[in-house]
Inverse folding.
């Protein structure tokens, strides 16, 4: 990977250069937390953020989007392509970059490509930023604590400077034109190594590192644990809304007040929604919290791994704070840890 | 939810619609008029035969779609909705009072004696024969609903069109919190503030929270509401469980009595 070093004071120049050609979204302060939002000035960016409430997924797959328009009176259908905004998502942590890579796998990596997602993804420049985990972070357990690909630039914080990993020509050209960058010195290399060490040792050690999680999901499929965990579910799907890798959706037709014209919309849906697995005739394949919560954990910690060789969960920890009743993958890991204890029955 | 059968008959006719008001503040009927930019379009799709808010005439004898606002609070209104059910192919309940008994439902526990508290010995005949307030669905089958207090005018327009033309959209039963996450608003519980979104049916888009106010549950409890888990969440976040239960009475008194 090509890399250069940049003084931190150069950063506003890079942001302004992006702003000339792109809409720039970045972590900003909102209330007591952080969100990704469109910025007007580099000063708004909060690169020291720990975690945003939701992920940048919303820029690749909006909560609601129009797929096509129709006119029932004229019997016309208009394939509808929403204007795709060329955009820079600035200051993305490794968990969210890995999450985008997983979305790519699911939505454009298979036989049937999602053109709406693909158009946005291709029009998006991703600038990553290194981070220090908070107590809910467990990206390192799924190998999502490093961004191997899926970004254009990645800024590793090495004190007064950034070690910038450059992965796309487009973004590198903008960087080189806007900022003073230089070759790394031996001192920079040592600073980078120390930063990665500090980060590695900062993860919450109370979150169990368990071997063979995907297989354990199968082995303990019928354990009473799922009844206990599922009985706590509020059926709100807050977990799926904040999850950077939940990509399930519902499609519905929405009529305009004239009763003739309308549009077909896609909107986020989730397997934790009670009606998600309900079918015509009224049968619901996952009628209770037990089945729904277990199903969600299965997709995150087993199903995707079996098909794509990586966990769908990236350990961003957002669901840990979003769920008001404490349902999250850490609970599942704790359960496996208990099952492995010396005196476990 | 399918469109009512008459629309597909060979002898198509413009659907005849009536709007009936029971015990309520009539605010939801008024909300219909707030769909002002679209009213002429809507009236072009239906034959509006009766609207209680704007007429002193009697209801017609036959109609296709009946829109009912308000809770059933008397024997007389119970008879009214039964008669409506026999005539209408599609019955739509609009507003919290009609859907959950709403504020009206707060009078349900200990109803006996409430009239005397207000009127003494002289309860007027116009009060009718009082019964425990109940939603329309407690008396007759309801085909569709527009939730909240008051209803959203465009929600109403959309529901009316679903009744007229059918829809591939199923009613939402998940609770509200996922909408707040989509809106990226801060959770009130994190600040130890009570919010009823944990158990309230989604669909409004969390508009009160967007305006900085906690959810007060006007959309009604979700059929999948998990009260036990919600009470446990209150304890975790330092919110009084009795405040939670008390707050639920405003729009969910009758629901709570059933659970």
């Amino acid at each position: 990977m090509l890399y250069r070093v940049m003084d931190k004071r150069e950063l506003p120049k890079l942001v302004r250069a992006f702003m000339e050609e792109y809409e720039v979204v970045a972590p900003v302060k909102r209330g007591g937390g952080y969100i990704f939002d469109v910025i007007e000035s580099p000063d708004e960016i909060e690169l020291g953020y720990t975690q945003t409430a939701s992920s940048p997924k919303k820029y690749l797959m909006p909560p609601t989007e129009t797929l096509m328009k129709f006119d029932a009176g004229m019997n016309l259908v208009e394939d509808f392509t929403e204007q795709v905004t060329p955009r820079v998502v600035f200051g993305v942590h490794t968990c969210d970059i890995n999450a985008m890579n997983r979305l790519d796998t699911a939505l454009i990596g298979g036989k049937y490509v999602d053109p709406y997602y693909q158009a946005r993804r291709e029009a998006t420049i991703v600038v990553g930023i290194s981070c220090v985990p908070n107590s809910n972070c467990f990206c390192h357990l799924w190998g999502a604590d490093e961004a191997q690909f899926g970004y254009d630039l990645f800024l590793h914080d090495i004190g007064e400077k950034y070690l910038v990993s450059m992965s796309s020509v487009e973004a590198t050209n903008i960087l080189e034109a806007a900022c003073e960058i230089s070759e790394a010195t031996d001192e920079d290399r040592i600073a980078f190594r120390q930063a990665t060490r500090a980060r590695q040792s900062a993860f919450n050690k109370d979150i169990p590192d368990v071997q063979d999680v995907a297989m354990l999901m199968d082995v303990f499929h019928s354990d009473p644990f799922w009844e206990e965990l599922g009985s706590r579910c509020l059926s709100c799907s807050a977990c799926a809304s904040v999850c950077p890798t939940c990509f399930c959706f519902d499609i519905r037709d929405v009529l305009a007040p004239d009763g003739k014209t309308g549009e077909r919309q896609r909107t986020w849906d989730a397997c934790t929604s009670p009606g998600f697995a309900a079918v015509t005739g009224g049968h619901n394949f996952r009628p209770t919290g037990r089945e729904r919560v277990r199903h969600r954990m299965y997709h995150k910690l087993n199903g995707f791994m079996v098909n794509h060789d990586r966990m769908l969960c990236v350990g961003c920890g957002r669901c840990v704070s979003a769920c008001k009743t404490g349902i999250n993958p850490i609970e599942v890991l704790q359960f496996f840890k208990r099952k492995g204890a010396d005196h476990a029955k | 939810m399918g469109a009512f059968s008459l629309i597909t008959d060979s002898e198509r006719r413009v659907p005849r619609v009536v709007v009936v008001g029971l015990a309520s503040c009539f605010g939801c009927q008024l909300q219909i008029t707030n769909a002002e930019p679209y009213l002429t379009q809507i009236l072009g799709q239906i034959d509006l035969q009766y609207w209680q808010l704007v007429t002193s005439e009697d209801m017609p004898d036959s109609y296709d779609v009946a829109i009912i606002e308000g809770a059933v609070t008397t024997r007389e209104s119970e008879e009214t909705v039964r008669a409506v059910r026999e005539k209408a192919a599609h019955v739509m309940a609009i507003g919290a009072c009609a859907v959950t008994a709403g504020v009206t439902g707060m009078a349900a526990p200990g109803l006996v004696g409430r009239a005397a508290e207000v009127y003494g010995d002289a309860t007027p005949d116009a009060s009718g024969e009082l019964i425990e307030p109940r939603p329309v669905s407690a008396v007759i089958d309801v085909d569709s609903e527009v939730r909240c207090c008051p209803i959203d005018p465009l929600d109403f327009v959309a529901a009316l069109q679903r009744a007229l033309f059918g829809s591939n959209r199923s009613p939402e039963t998940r609770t509200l919190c996922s909408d707040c996450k989509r809106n990226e608003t801060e959770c009130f519980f994190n600040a130890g503030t009570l919010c009823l979104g944990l158990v309230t049916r989604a669909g409004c888009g969390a508009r009160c929270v967007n305006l900085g106010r906690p959810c007060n549950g006007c959309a009604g409890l979700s059929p999948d509401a998990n009260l036990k888990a919600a009470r446990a969440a209150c304890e975790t976040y330092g919110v009084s469980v009795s405040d939670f239960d008390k707050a639920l009475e405003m729009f969910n008194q009758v629901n709570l009595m059933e659970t």
User: Anything to note?
Assistant: The mean pLDDT of chain A is 96.
